[in-house]
Amino acid sequence: MLARLVAAAAGGLALFAAFPPLDWWLCAPLGISLIVGSLYGTRPRRAAWLGYVAALVFLFPALAWVRTIGDDVWFMLVGVESLFYAAMAALAALVFRLPLWPLWFSGLWVAMEWARGLVPIGGFPWARVAFSQGESLFTSYAALGGVPLVSFAVTLCGALVAHAVLVRPAASARSAASARPAAALRRAVPVVLALAVPVLSFAVPRPGDEGRAINVGIVQGNVPGRGMNILGDEPAVVLKNHANETKRLAQAVRDGKLPKPDIVILPENSTDIDPYRDEFAREIIQDSVRDVGVPTLVGAVVAIGDDRRATRSLTWDPVTGPGAYYDKQHLVPFGEYTPFKEIVLALWERASLVGRQSVPGDKPGDLKLGPVTIGAVNCYEVAYDGTVRETVRAGGTPIVVQTNNASYAESNLPPQQLAMSKLRAVEHNRAVVTAATTGISAYVTPDGKVSWQTRELVADMNVVKVPVRTQETIATKVGAVPEWALMVMGAAAVGAALWRGRRRGDRMRNDG
């Protein structure tokens, strides 16, 4: 049992090392192998505890950025999320009894990550194995089956390695001398298959360049505060910071230091005052957009009635002012709204910091901005497959991620979010432009390579040349079909294992 606990903990630690900021992507299949080694041959109850331990060791450091909100929230979140891994491990103990179990185990892993992204309170799809593979040999699978297929491929690779170590070939009736080569060959098969999984990713079809590009201005204005007090004490500082940085970009263009942009992107919450209700905020934004002279995407939190709000991506024309908009669909629980409000507010004083409750939008973020229709995605939403996919299907190109990571500056959240953008770029054959209040703002090519990025906690701006692609990948076209196929495969294996176990029990009773 001690050896199993050590293997489970080592597996969780290796999984963490695969994620940014360490980014040792090869540690992901290694971590899976160790976790499988800890579970193989155990009963479901013991497997559940081992899975829980592996998840705790993985998620505590991987989600360390949650500590900004409070250590109690961090402990609660990790404790709840680890339950999904425990349930998956218990089911895995059953499918390990079947032939070809690396396939069924990998399907269960995909199902576990799907469930985590669904419940509770809207799900939490952070720290999926695929998000450790922003630039790896497994990345191309995103263009074929999206994030779930990347998770499946990494898990399958690790499980096959574990199979080679754990499963002894069946004894042969032949002589020991003649049986040894055959046994060695059978043991080598899963190793060869494990190596083949990442190599086969090179065969995934990827659309090419279409010969069209635009210049995109990216503005990162920085904020005065830190942690839960990101906006500081003086109103309009965030607004002025981003307006001034936009003006600095305009001046750099006039001086010939930067090419003229076709559009400009500002981050989520680039104005801390509602421009619909405040004439002062409206004039500051209008002045800066007029100065840069091109359509600009502004991030604002706007009032909806007297007691609600929306996190909005708002197009702003240098002549006509505010226009079309996209309202964030996936809201951050306890950050933008309070689930079970009456109970939570009564028990938890910090929940009152949410203030006015946000309401979600109900339409994808395809927004006409200058010469293109961009795909607007807000911060937390980049982790949700369906939200990004529907925005691309609606015509969004490039994908634009407006984000406000100021509360989590210099934690492991900004690099983890950038890794998600790398995968989304490959998944949908779209460039991804990220504008962040404090960093990391970046431009990711459709091949998933970071072409430019900012440092954190500084004001910065740039104009980047971004390809405009309209061809869809297989993953964009088929959507969630591969995910459902993999989950059904895992669930069917559990059913087969239970049926097989029942038949064996009936046989034993009959023999008795």
Termini separation: 32 Å
Helix proportion range: 40-55%
Q: What portion of the residues fall into strands of 2 or more residues?
A: 5-15%
The dominant shape is elongated
Tell me the count of domains.
Answer: 2
Structural class: alpha/beta
Radius of gyration: 25 Å
Major sheet description: 7 strands, mixed
What is the residue-mean pLDDT, rounded to a whole number?
90
Report low-confidence residues grouped into runs of 5 or more: none
The tally of strands reads 13
Q: How many alpha or pi helices?
A: 14
- The succession of helices and strands, N to C, reads HHHHHHHEHEHEEEHEEEHEHEEEEHH
Transmembrane segments: 49-67, 73-96, 141-167, 188-205, 481-499
GO biological process, one term: lipoprotein biosynthetic process
Keywords: Acyltransferase, Cell membrane, Lipoprotein, Membrane, Transferase, Transmembrane, Transmembrane helix
EC number: 2.3.1.269
Q: If you had to describe this structure to a student in words, what would you say it looks like?
A:
The structure is a single chain. This protein starts with a helix and ends with a helix. Helix 4 (71-95) packs across helix 14. Strands 1, 2, 3, 4, 5, 6 and 13 form a seven-stranded mixed beta sheet that branches. The chain has a six-stranded mixed beta sheet with strand order 7-8-9-10-11-12, covered by helices on one side. The protein contains 14 helices and 13 strands. 52% of the residues are buried. The chain folds into two domains: 2-170 and 177-204 and 480-511, no CATH class; 213-326 and 363-476, Nitrilase/N-carbamoyl-D-aminoacid amidohydrolase (4-Layer Sandwich), CATH 3.60.110. It has 512 residues and is α/β, with parallel strands linked by helices.
